[in-house]
Amino acid sequence: MFSYLLDTHGSIKFPNQGKIRENNKNNFNFRGTAAMAGVGRLKNRLIAALFTRFPSLGTKAAQKVETMAFDATPFTRMSKPLSEANLALITTAGVHLRQDTPFDMSDPDGDPTFRVINSGARVDELMITHDYYDHTDADRDINIVFPIERLRELVSGKRIGRLAPRFYGFMGHIQGRHIKSLVDTYAARVVAMLKEDGVDVALFTPG
Question: Cβ atoms within 10 A of the Cβ of 89, count?
Fold first, then answer.
């Protein structure tokens, strides 16, 4: 049986038994770490299910979370009616294409990266990776958190002008060291891409 080691650069190694005994300080036993990560993910899912069953517990927990405040957030009025607007959908519900790399659930501070989703994607090409809320219902109908089909219906009904070619999936639950990279790096990249696509309106949905 192989023992898997993960080096400091994130690459997987398959060392021989002698190297395993060396216990190189730059490596750690991946098998044990994976088991611990699995336990952590199970705990998070159980907590999410508990908050769904007892919403008051979720409310109390949310009240203890320190949120970010922005005093200089700009307000931009619509320059055209919604029926002529180019709209993009952005979610923090952990939605991504099945073919894409899932969000990292092993990091307790979350995964600040994003996934690009073609606005023409079928719902069966989408999935959710997020352990911090109960998405049982959304797994059955992803439109609950990512209303891609509803938006297409609104375009067909001429209530919305058109959909941008690219939508975006983030994972909510970003904490600690990842907040800065989320705001300064990944969110900034999405803003630039929205401008490239000539987006007039962005619809945000939580998880």
Answer: 23
| Nearest alpha carbon to residue 26 among 4, 3, 7 | 7
pLDDT single digits (tens) 178-200:
999 999 999 999 999 999 999 99
Indicate the domain borders of the chain: 5-63, 82-205
| Distance (Å, whole) CA 29 – CA 75 | 50
pTM score, two decimals? 0.73
In angstroms, the CA 195 to CA 201 distance is: 11
Alpha carbons 34 and 23: distance in angstroms, whole number: 17
Convert 43-77 to b/e letters by CB count within 10 Å (16 or more is b): ebbebbeebeeeeeebeeeeeeeeeeeeeeeeeee
DSSP 182: I
Residues 167 and 118: their CA atoms lie apart, in Å, by: 6
CA 83 to CA 4: how far, in whole Å?
A: 55
186 three-class SS: helix
